[in-house]
Design a protein that fits this description.
By secondary structure, the chain is an alpha+beta fold. The protein folds into two domains: 79 residues, no CATH class; 121 residues, no CATH class. Pfam families: MdcG, MdcG_N.
């Protein structure tokens, strides 16, 4: 089962299949990714996508400090996935962080299992210049229990004044919620949930029920 922000490495045939699903102008970028051995990232499945197909994406570095990243959507039969892994661990991603972030990131990651995606992770993986002065730090918190959720939210909140933190909570089963929205929502409120198939509103209680009660 694939999860949001998973990293996927393709076989040679997988890159050939991916090339059939993109615009001609994107082929050069795909060739670079294949040549360098870089992974694509799992994204939400396309509407009507048949079984056995994996929806992936590649985000290119921004052309300038204020320019958005260009994203390339591709689809590949699952048999052409060579391997996959979860989002990059925070310690792995920290090597690409500006010096001004590193001490606070180390303190944040010291007691909480966090993973990185977005610009920081992509710069760590590729060495290309994704980070700009306006970049956020996208972090993924995947708690197994309510205590892990509470501890993770508390840690993120403590460091949010010193770091431009953003990101998601990934609940068991694959439902993802922006951690800031979760933190700020009151009991009884519904929150925006993103899954591999759709975007919906759901109750906090329903999401908490997916966690171990400890």
């Amino acid at each position: 089962m694939y999860s949001r922000h998973d990293l996927v490495w393709l076989t040679a045939q997988g890159w050939k299949e991916a090339a059939k699903t993109v615009r001609p102008g994107d082929l050069r970028s795909l060739a670079l990714w294949e040549r360098q051995g870089w992974p694509a990232v799992v994204r939400r499945r396309d509407v009507g996508q048949p079984a056995g197909i994996v929806s992936l994406g590649i985000a290119l570095p921004p052309a300038g400090a204020d320019a958005p990243k260009e994203r390339i959507a591709l689809r590949v039969p699952s048999q052409h996935v060579a391997r996959r892994a979860g989002a990059l661990s925070l310690p792995e991603a920290m090597a690409a962080a500006p010096e001004t972030w590193r001490a606070d990131l180390a303190a944040l990651g010291g007691g909480t299992a966090l993973r990185a995606y977005g610009s920081l992770a992509l710069q760590a993986i590729t060495g290309l210049p994704y980070l700009t002065p306006r970049s956020d730090i996208d972090l993924l918190l995947a708690p197994r229990s309510r205590s892990e959720l509470d501890a993770g939210i508390a840690a993120l909140s403590r460091h949010a004044d010193a770091l431009p933190l953003d990101g998601e909570i990934l609940f068991p089963g694959g439902a993802a919620v922006a951690w800031k929205e979760w933190r700020d929502a009151r009991d009884g409120m519904r929150v925006l949930v993103k899954t591999m198939d759709a975007v919906r509103l759901d109750s906090r209680a329903a999401l908490l029920a997916t966690l171990e009660d400890r």
